[in-house]
Design a protein that fits this description.
The protein has one domain (8-113). The protein has helices at 8-29, 32-49, 59-85, 94-113. The two termini are 23 Å apart. The protein is 76% helix and 0% strand. It contains 4 helices and no strands.
Length: 114
């Protein structure tokens, strides 16, 4: 879009297609928990950037969304998806607990200072 090679309408089509195909792939290969995490991330990502809501206009909400998605949802979701893919038992290890606590704070600081 920045170079002018893609129209706003085409960008919307690509984003919608990607969201639908991603949902289908996650629903096909992963559990309902992973699908729920994916759809929740998709929803708050849409609310963050898509008009008319566009929550990124509000600094506090924007920082909270970034901190949650990049700090918690990403790490927890990837860990859960990998344990499912390799048919391992989900365990709340010290490392996972650390990531799920530390990374939202770290991502929140980055979001605020950005």
């Amino acid at each position: 879009m920045a170079s002018g090679r893609m129209s706003s309408r085409m960008a919307c089509v690509v984003v919608a297609f990607s969201g639908v195909m991603g949902s289908i792939l996650v629903a096909t290969y992963f559990s309902k928990l992973i699908l729920g995490l994916y759809l929740f991330g998709l929803l708050i990502g849409g609310l963050y950037s898509a008009p008319p809501v566009r929550l990124k206009r509000y600094p506090t909400l924007a920082a909270m969304i970034i901190a949650f998605v990049r700090g918690f949802l990403l790490h927890f979701g990837i860990y859960t998806a990998v344990t499912e893919a390799f048919e391992l038992q989900f365990l709340w290890s010290r490392q996972l607990i650390f990531l799920c606590r530390f990374m939202p704070v770290f991502a929140g600081v980055i979001a605020v200072t950005k």
